[in-house]
UniProtKB/TrEMBL annotation, chain A:
<keyword id="KW-0320">Glycogen biosynthesis</keyword>
<dbReference type="GO" id="GO:0016301">
    <property type="term" value="F:kinase activity"/>
</dbReference>
<keyword id="KW-0119">Carbohydrate metabolism</keyword>
<dbReference type="Pfam" id="PF18085">
    <property type="entry name" value="Mak_N_cap"/>
</dbReference>
<keyword id="KW-0067">ATP-binding</keyword>
<comment type="subunit">
    <text>Monomer.</text>
</comment>
<dbReference type="InterPro" id="IPR011009">
    <property type="entry name" value="Kinase-like_dom_sf"/>
</dbReference>
<keyword id="KW-0808">Transferase</keyword>
<dbReference type="GO" id="GO:0005978">
    <property type="term" value="P:glycogen biosynthetic process"/>
</dbReference>
Automatic annotation (TrEMBL), chain B:
<dbReference type="GO" id="GO:0046872">
    <property type="term" value="F:metal ion binding"/>
</dbReference>
<keyword id="KW-0808">Transferase</keyword>
<dbReference type="GO" id="GO:0005975">
    <property type="term" value="P:carbohydrate metabolic process"/>
</dbReference>
<dbReference type="InterPro" id="IPR012810">
    <property type="entry name" value="TreS/a-amylase_N"/>
</dbReference>
<keyword id="KW-0106">Calcium</keyword>
<comment type="similarity">
    <text>Belongs to the glycosyl hydrolase 13 family. TreS subfamily.</text>
</comment>
<dbReference type="InterPro" id="IPR032091">
    <property type="entry name" value="Malt_amylase-like_C"/>
</dbReference>
<dbReference type="GO" id="GO:0016740">
    <property type="term" value="F:transferase activity"/>
</dbReference>
<protein>
    <recommendedName>
        <fullName>maltose alpha-D-glucosyltransferase</fullName>
        <ecNumber>5.4.99.16</ecNumber>
    </recommendedName>
</protein>
Amino acid sequence: MIDPHELVDKLVSALPDMLPNLRWFGGKDRPVSGVRPLRTTLLDDDLVHVIVAVDQDGRSSPYQLLISELADSYESTADPELNGVLLDLIARGERVDGLVFAHEPDTELRTGLRGRPVGVEQSNTSLIYGQQYILKLFRKLTLGENPDLVLHRALRGVGCQHIAQPLGSITTDLDGTPVTLGMLQEFLPDAVDGWAMATTSVRDLMAEADLHADEVGGDFAAEAHRLGHAVASVHADLARALGTQTAGATEIASAIASMQSRLDAVLHDVPELGEHSAALREVFEQAREHLGDIAIQHIHGDLHLGQVLRTVQGWLLIDFEGEPAAPIAERTAMRSPLRDVAGMLRSFDYAAHQLLVGQDDDQLAYRALEWARRNRAAFCDGYAEVLSDPREHAFLLQAFELDKAVYEVAYEHANRPEWLTIPLSSIARITSGGE
Amino acid sequence: MVEETRPDAALGLEGVPHTGEAITAGGLLTEPQAEDFQSAKAAPRDPVWYKGAVFYEVLVRAFSDSNGDGTGDLRGLASRLDYLEWLGVDCLWLPPFYASPLRDGGYDISDFRAVLPEFGTVEDFVYLLEEAHRRGIRVITDLVLNHTSDAHPWFQESRQNPDGPYGDYYVWSDDDSRYSDARIIFVDTETSNWTYDPVRGQFFWHRFFAHQPDLNYENPDVQEAMLDVLRFWLDIGIDGFRLDAVPYLFEEEGTICENLPRTHEFLRRCRKVVDDEYPGRVLLAEANQWPSDVVEYFGEAEVGGDECHMAFHFPLMPRIFMAVRRESRFPISEILAQTPQIPDGCQWGIFLRNHDELTLEMVTDEERDYMYAEYAKDPRMKANIGIRRRLAPLLENDRNQHELFTALLLSLPGSPVLYYGDEIGMGDNIWLADRDAVRTPMQWTPDRNAGFSNCDPGRIYLPVIMDPVYGYQGLNVEAQLNNTSSLLNWTRHMIEVRKQHHAFAEGDFTELGGSNPSVLAYKRRWRRPDGHEDIVLCVNNLSRFPQPVELDLSDHRGSTPLELTGGVRFPMVGELPYLLTLPGHGFYWFQLVEAGDDSVPGGETR
């Protein structure tokens, strides 16, 4: 039996040095000025749950950790046996001090499974239990219910077929506000993400660039069509479950204003964007002038090919958290579903062009564009089978797409300068009237 | 008034025993009996042999000609049994070799109890069976239950003597209005399922060609007569039947006249005859339908199946081609996920190619367009609803793909059915009519007529393949036997490996998924009666490019994958996903050897 508080004390003193090296730590750009334990819970003889406040620049953010004396450098999530405790607690629906482990109504879970951590992850930690369940632990905690859990539950409630079904949760309160610590979902071992599917198709096309995109064996259009259908079904289900509103001139003006201010900020950092600034502003202005009221609702918020999974039952959408860097108010607000569509359309562009980075080959560039056009169109066709055709709202869709591309410019500039050509050439193409 | 003719007049079987040689005082046709012939010694006893057998479809006409008339025959086939035994074949499937006017490739049978004279005699068939059984090889053949040729003496009697014992053997009607909900299957050639017979002055019912009248299963005598046909060949020693066109036996007003309950009832009667009188023989259903419908033909699951022992899995085959062209496992994964469990005593038959076109009936319209675009670039390659090509040309003669496809055929759930000639990578001839493209003579040697026949080359039933890529001078059995790296030797080795692991035959199938859509990975797990588990792991790269894959083998932590073709031990499975890399169109077969299992050669786990 360990003394949890002694262990936490040791952890807290080690954390300031450890944090910058931990993958899930979101504040790597600023020095850590202090770490304070907020809550310590003994979950099992060898397993301690701890929430710490990490102070940086006078701001403080809560993070959760699972630690054990048995683990190297405290962190226990690498230990499949210890991870099994979390699933068992959820299955039994237990409350341990302030932590609430619950399974969704009408679900029964297997216990005694080992939990293997997923290798590749950024801001969260996910554990896979026996090919059946996946538990996502949110590392940096946000006050208020997590949109991922809220939207998954709502979609389950209306019988949505295009999600991994939610099975349970770990929640608590911090300062009287609910906080989501983790979400358990069905795990789909046969799933492949949309990015891998799409780039497989592009690779096939690039190897036979004398054939057109609709002639090669690896043509993706049928998948893109089904994907469009799936995204529209999820939008329809979200609207059914959580309602819709109408955004009027004021809301639209403020959305356009934030696009303009993002553009201003990026122009400041990335001079290459300068030649497109007038054209971009014109598109944003046009959107403002031509728009009447638009329907808004809850949406995915950060949709791209990496957030969709192909399974034998069809396409699923995952990770309804919204853009992790955005403030929680924005992530949970109702917005136009065309934002999700724009995100997917941008993603098709990326999938088509990513193999060309650093290459200068007109033939391949032509094929890439052909692939992107074919699959963007197929996606919209599939979407239009369920909801209205997104291309009917060309002004708004274009504005969303360009706004996304401006964001990509900033991201590539900071992280992968050689990829900058992808969003820049898209901006040039869209503003000059191409798709 | 049409002059009455002898009922056996249209058979052309003078001098050999046949149906209708004589007519009894009661008007019954004399039929040959099994006792008139010798019967073959049975194959070694094994009641569930079909679950693990490697089948080989061979056209008698195309395999070997023993008498120099330019057409393959039963004696010729018997002379090639050593080759088939060497290859590892367990069971031959022969398309019909019965007496027939050959207006539908022999599926228009004019006498169920006689052999087509150009193929030989019933005695020759007994000889083939005897020789095959001596080598442990079984033989099954097609049997058409639904209809006969209009040259069959039964039909001749039926049209001439409506009040005689055969008057009610076929479905006759005064008009052509009944059963109007039944679709017309051969829409290219037939305009109705009814045809007027001027001799009897009535219409007769036919689901296929107008020269193939449907038997009337409402008549108990027909049921008995067909059961006796089964008994005739089973007595002679045949190991089973592929039942052709089974969904159509009965008609019922207001239905589409397919898959009716009474059709299943009759199949149960056939099965009972087999179980009671001829245990160890099999019935294989040909029902080109979706797997969820085909399972009906296995019968009641609670008793392990009480209709057919086997059925072909039609939709899987086109999807294997599609998956490789798309470099995506989903076409295969989806159809296997939609395939229901089958009763204990049953098994699927799976195949890549057969004597018909690569059939595309069991795909969606979108998929069919895709398959045509990818595999039938020349419109001549299309036939009916399908593609009339052999395996090697379909794969553009790519050895790596040919091996990958064969590995899939030998490792996916079901008993594999090879098509003659594909083991040496034979080509096709799309300038021949219809499905003859894939029915050219087997290529044995570089000699005259590819060693198939010593006849004058002009007399041969179809020209041998002579093009520079697939021509018999270079591509033949003899050349490949002498080359250890040939496709033939490779195929034989893979069949041998398959037979060493019963998991390939009866093991559970579990797909492993994985993050790479181009890699299809699955486990086959078989629990031996002594409780020992045999687990094989198959990993297939459907892409032409090299691929990595990370597989979740956490259930097998501590096991060691033993590669099955070479016996190389791979690194032990640990906690992390198991990383493998595969060359373009590459595949692996592993046995997962548990730590401490010393039943495996070199099984120590140091």
